[in-house]
Amino acid sequence: MSNPNRRPILAGNWKMHLTLAEGLALATEIRNRCGRFRQADVVLAPVSLALLSIVERLADSNVAVAAQNCHAAAKGAFTGEVSPVQLRDLGVRYVILGHSERRQFFGENDEGVGKKGRSTVDAGLIPILCVGESLAEREAGRTLEVVTRQLDGALALLLPEEVGGVVLAYEPVWAIGTGRTATPAQAQETHAAIRRRVASTHGEDAAKNVRIQYGGSVKPDNIAELMAEADIDGALVGGASLDADSFVNIVTRAVHASGLE
Ligand code: PEP
Which ligand 1 atom is the nearest neighbour of the CA of 215? Predict the structure, then answer.
């Protein structure tokens, strides 16, 4: 079972889906149905245009809001970008950084993710730092090499005492949006390796406290077995977070599997 000292964290990444009205309706339903889960962190990441409205809708609830990306600078001449300071100002609490879609389609690299990680922590936000290998990398036996490189880049500019407060997300690229989930044993093996790496780069306390989500086709019927693993502290959910029943079931079963209900 996941370590009871680490609060489960379930986050829904809505990506570039939903109109404002649809997002508000979904956020409202999730808020109403997850209100009783004070033992876990529940987070929704809408498209940036909807952030303010969703923050307002979720005010005074136990559901927090994440951005899906941000710029590394606090402000400046960066047309089309959004800064971590501006996100914090809206009431956003988390930022997903280094998602594989950003790495694949928008040229994000390890060094850039590290800079963004630094500036989000400076702004008082909690980064959700994503790492994960492609299918070709896994088949070539390079999973740990790739994940370690991405992890080192993501944490490069953070102090040991800061790392315990961030969230990591292990998302094998071959499992994202494919319906193909890593087995709990495959996920646990990589999560444990990530935690060991954090211990060697940022110390035992950071490794003990940092929460590591699994992401990749998480559904109501596989969340419990994933959460049963010692180093899996939650999930970053894409497709299944767009449906209230699915996401609420994932949260419910994760809390239950963590022995917190
Ligand atoms: C994701 O995009 O982070 C993700 C895990 O997506 P899905 O749950 O749809 O595989």
Answer: 5
Helices (H), the chain: 20-34, 51-57, 84-90, 100-106, 110-122, 135-139, 143-155, 160-163, 184-202, 204-209, 223-227, 244-257
- According to DSSP, the residues that pair with 9 across neighbouring strands are 41, 234
* Structural domains in the chain plus CATH codes: 9-257 (3.20.20.70)
Per residue in 56-91, pLDDT tens?
999 999 999 999 999 999 999 999 999 999 999 999
The CA 217 to ligand 1 mean position distance, Å, reads 6
- Dihedral pair phi/psi, residue 197, rounded to 5°: -65, -40
Q: What is the pLDDT of residues 89-105, one digit of tens each?
A: 999 999 999 999 999 99
